[in-house]
Amino acid sequence: MHSAERETLILEALAPSGFVTYRELEARLAASPATIRRDLTRLEEAGLLQRVHGGAKLPPDADQNERQPSLSGTPFDLAITQNLAHKQAIGLAAARLCTPGEGIMVDGGTTTYQMCQHLAGMGLQVLTNSLHIVNALLPQTDTRVLIPSGTVFREQNIVLAPAGEESMPRFHAPKLFMGAAAVGPQGVMQHDIVLVAAERRFMDRAEKVILMVDSTKFTLSSGAIVCGLDEVDVLITDAGIPAAMAEQIRAKGVELIIA
After folding, report:
1. pTM for the whole structure
2. How many domains does the chain have?
3. Do 58 and 103 lie in a common domain?
4. pLDDT for res 68
């Protein structure tokens, strides 16, 4: 199992009660105690958990964040104005990968949002956790829209459920379109562990993962890891992607599309 997958499972195990034991993690991860300790050390250094005797717990401020739901990162209304031309080109390139009549999943974000205007007339079923995307698709009478259950996070206008809680419709799709806060050699990253869990749920239901990020996302290097680059099938970005990063992405077997 890849380290990014183990880290996601550790965070999901923490969510229900805020504490998980080493014994539980050994059973859940099928990994050695030394491997689990290294995983916990990385997550603690990232501020995502706190190691304690016998296991790990959520950091002290996690309970407060749970009472007043909010996500780390730039609010949608501000992020939508950043690098807009690149995001629009990426959205068009992503829409061209869709096949009329199929079901797709679209994760919330300002880049994935740019797909919406190009989906009219294709007769798609779209599962999304973004209320912005829902509103953009509603005028398309031939587009069927599905959403999961959960809490609305107002800054991003996104619907998310706690890790470990089943909130998704029974839906399987050939393609998942998703964004990211950052992309680097270590993988695809998000600012918030709640987003990590939600995106892993989407990935579990998709045959192909299509990542949509503008080139500024390659200049950041920190965040909670969603997945390794080897779990991405297609990456759509703009011509500003660093050459070294493009080479690493292709070396992982990822199809790189420059919009």
Report:
1. 0.72
2. 2
3. no
4. 44
